[in-house]
Structure formats: structure tokens, C-alpha cells
């Protein structure tokens, strides 16, 4: 696989404030990469540097191996979609989509053909004569996407493009956007603070915090093998338990939790550089299960006694807060499994394979 975009030691400072600390990243040709993190973590700044809207203070940006730091935005072959649709209000939809092509002096017949194809791809083939104000928000966002892809960009840059849409439309657009990206095979960098969006759409997720990368990995990796407490907490509900570990560096690491006893995890469950004698065990809330007797726990699970402190009914699932010794743990179980009331004595159990062990 070849690399479409490379960021080499990119830094961005605004005065004395460092928004992006030295950051390295390689984005694979044709892949969908998401910059994910809370507000202010530097994802938009990173995207804007790739776009050429901001100059990096230090470091190099390469697109297809060519350094583009000094190449102005209109000479980088990029498609950009922002949260606000940013369509030209006084141009028709056709003129909006055609804009980048006319700018590139593409012959008229080809412009017609390409605009038609792009509008078909976003499933709005018949609105060319209308003006942006005559379209809904979702339709305008599709047109913004058509305008970005019509030029066959080397990289498609998407800055929270779905966040102005209402919840249902957003989910539909998520699927559509991903389908279009796959169909075109265009390298895409997507910025969002929405974990669900990132998990559903990405080939790779870059989790950012305070201008630094916390973890890069597939959706499965960042969700199931978080490399830090921050990632574990940012992507869904997690239990973090203090543990003692033995055999760091070996194939199997013996872990001891006061209430659950001793059990083993293997090296794939210990992020690199994270092994130490004292650590934190991360367990997703939906991987912690409750039953009324220990006999119901599947073979291989480790178990402990607990008391249900609180119950939140969430519709498709129930969230329990359970006291296990000194720990307060969360369990999210799908409805259909046994239901427990506040105060119930329960067996709490989990499969050690589902944990990640972090160093202290
Ligand atoms: P959001 O989701 O809120 O857009 P973000 O992760 O995209 O957040 P950035 O917009 O990249 O964050 O901002 C990163 C940090 O840099 C923030 O603390 C922000 O206040 C700061 N920042 C961004 N642009 C400027 C600027 N032009 N001047 C000064 N500080 C800035």
C-alpha cells in the first residue's frame, strides 16, 4: 500500500500556545482516516494544515511524496467539505458543483458530464437549476460533497461535515458518505468529536488529546485495545481497576485483582511500553456481566460478588452500577438478559480476554 499523505514532525503554534505538538502520521492511499478527539484537541488545526489553510510552524507535509508546505491551497488537488456547507448562494447548484472544474479550465462538455456524474453519486441528479437556499440542509451538504469530489481530488478533507444535520439524517449520511468514499477509493481525512461516527466510518482512527496523538489504530483496536486511560474513557464507558501484574514482557502476564483473584492476559492485551508491575485493567462496561449465581458464568470467566447500587434503563440495554469490594463498576447488559434491582446481590463476571492492561 502506498502512502497518500505524510505528516513529518508537524507543529502548529499560535503565538506562545502550541495547538499541535510534533506530530507524525502516514495516511494510506484510498483509506478513510478519522481525527477524533474532544473540542480543542487540535484536529481541525491538523486538517487545515493538510488543506493549506494554515501554515505549519514546523515540519513537512507531503502529498503523494511531494512536499506541499509552500504550495497554495488552490494548487493542491484537494476536495474540502466543512460543517457549514459554504455553497455560493448566488450560483445555481450546477454552477456550484462545476466551480472547481471551470477554475481548472476543463472543457465545457466534460464539465457537464462530470457534474452530472457527481450529482448522481450524491443522489441529487435533478437540482442543477436550483439555488442553495432552495435545498434542505442535508441536500446542501450532499452538493458540497459533490463539489468536492467532482475534481477527482488526491485527498478529500471533511471537517465535521455531518454535525449540522439532525440525528436521523446524520446516520443516513454516514452510510452514504462511506459508500461514496469506497466507490471512489479516494483518500479521506475526516474530523469529528463523535465516537460513533468515527467507529462506523473509519479504516483508521487517530485519537487526539491536547495537540498530541494518543493512539492510531483500527476502530476495533482503539475500542477494544485502548492504549491509554484517556482513549478507554473517550470511546465508550470503561471500568478501570488497579491491578498488580507479574511477568511483564513474557507471553502471558499474571494479573491480580483483589476481588476477582488471579488470572492471565496475553501480550496482545498489553499495549507496547505499557507493562509494569502496577497497572490498570481496562474493561468495557458491556463486557462485564451479571448473573444471580456463579454457576451461570461461562467457563473461563473470572467472577466476584457484587451489590447492585443503581440501575439505569437505557432502552436496548440496562446500565448497572455495582459495588465489588472497594470498586464501583459499570455493567451495560442488553435487555433480555436477567434484570436485577437496586440492592440485589449478584455475581459479576468477565472474560479476561476482553481486558486491556495499561501500565501505571
Ligand atoms: P473543535 O472540535 O472545537 O473544532 P479541535 O480539536 O478541532 O476542536 P482546533 O480548532 O484544532 O481544535 O484548536 C486547537 C487549539 O488551538 C484550541 O485550543 C484553539 O483554541 C486553538 N486555536 C485554533 N485556532 C487558533 C487561532 N487562530 N489562534 C489561536 N488559537 C487557536
TrEMBL record:
Keywords: ATP-binding, Nucleotide-binding, Transport. GO terms for molecular function: ATP binding; ATP hydrolysis activity; transmembrane transporter activity. GO terms for cellular component: ATP-binding cassette (ABC) transporter complex. Residues 5-235 form the ABC transporter domain. SMART domains: AAA. One of its GO terms (biological process) is quaternary ammonium group transport. It holds the Pfam family TOBE_2. InterPro entries: AAA+_ATPase (IPR003593), ABC_SmlMolc_Importer (IPR050093), ABC_transporter-like_ATP-bd (IPR003439), ABC_transporter-like_CS (IPR017871), Mo/tungstate-bd_C_term_dom (IPR008995), NA-bd_OB-fold (IPR012340), P-loop_NTPase (IPR027417), Transp-assoc_OB_typ2 (IPR013611). Belongs to the ABC transporter superfamily. This is Putative spermidine/putrescine transport system ATP-binding protein.
